[in-house]
Amino acid sequence: MKIAVLPGDGIGPEIVAQAVNVLNALNINITMQEAPIGGAGYEAAGDPLPDATLQLAKEADAVLLGAVGDWKYDKLERHLRPERGLLRIRKELNLFANLRPALLYPELANASTLKPEVVSGLDIMIVRELTGDIYFGQPRGISTLENGEREGINTMRYCESEIRRIGRVAFDIAMKRNKRVCSVDKANVLETTELWRQVMIELSAEYPEVELSHMYVDNAAMQLIRAPKQFDVMVTGNIFGDILSDEASMLTGSIGMLPSASLDANNKGMYEPSHGSAPDIAGKDIANPLATILSAAMMLRYTFNDEANALKIENAVKKALAQGYRTADIVTEGCKQVKCSEMGNAVVAALN
Ligand code: NAD
Fold first, then answer.
1. Ligand 1 atom nearest to 71, measured from its CA
2. What is the largest distance, in Å, between two alpha-carbon atoms of the chain?
3. 264 included as an active-site residue
4. pTM, whole model, 2 decimals?
């Protein structure tokens, strides 16, 4: 198993180091090779996705990524900014399916800003389309109109095959879970998502056991806070999924707990925490590494078909939490506040 390790910027190197320690502590045959991406790529090669990094990622079976971005790069031309490296690698590897589980560990019920009875037992899988939508649609840009006023343009577009392949991922996952898919759109005002809804309905004929429902994105945003346990699998486009999955992260206590997987059609994947590079806490060894460690578990499950070791990592995380270890973002009264590296060590110790 060959893994490309791309730590990135900000807290990226700190949290990825912990996930690498956890993978190394398992008795499995893996090779890991590191390369820069994002701001680190720009510093090393003048490109947020250096050719050598892309080559390594293409040759690997899976990619483990930290996060990219730092405010100091905000003034760079758009194509040189760290986030561009991330969008490009997703596109280059054709990672169209982003899986974001939002699962509340019982030990963290008090860390959520919502009442424990609202979130306790929460287990949602958000399936977000990742390579289309308004983030990639053409035309785009900022131009100057004849009257001298500036105008910004982005284009929301999806073709049928793109909708069908992400729908299939969602239905397949639902078959292994509670057999319910909620498709989120804005079909009342956006034609792109009217088509989205039509294709989901057509596809559902192939999955008679799965109950398909539809929800407008504004209502979905509200329902996630009001009664999140009503959801099993949610499937949605790139921009709605971006927002809803961050919202769902707060149900789980902290964005530092949320892993993610981005898969291509052959289950090659890039695995990364759902959060960003958190420049505000970078270099202090206080970030929560659990989202990244849990992303490594997803890597074993979805790319390497190694359910046993995936569960081993997830159980070790549960054990570390049950033992009372908490990073600053999830600490509550009576728990042991630990640093990022100490949390990593606690998970490694719990593996044994
Ligand atoms: P962010 O997710 O980096 O941080 C939001 C808040 O959550 C911050 O207060 C941060 O300290 C906290 N946080 C995030 N991860 C944490 C962790 N593991 N442990 C503890 N606290 C954590 O989002 P932002 O502040 O909007 O963006 C910062 C930078 O990250 C920007 O440059 C942005 O473009 C980039 N970004 C990158 C990705 C990615 O690489 N996938 C995603 C989102 C944002």
1. 32
2. 69
3. no
4. 0.87
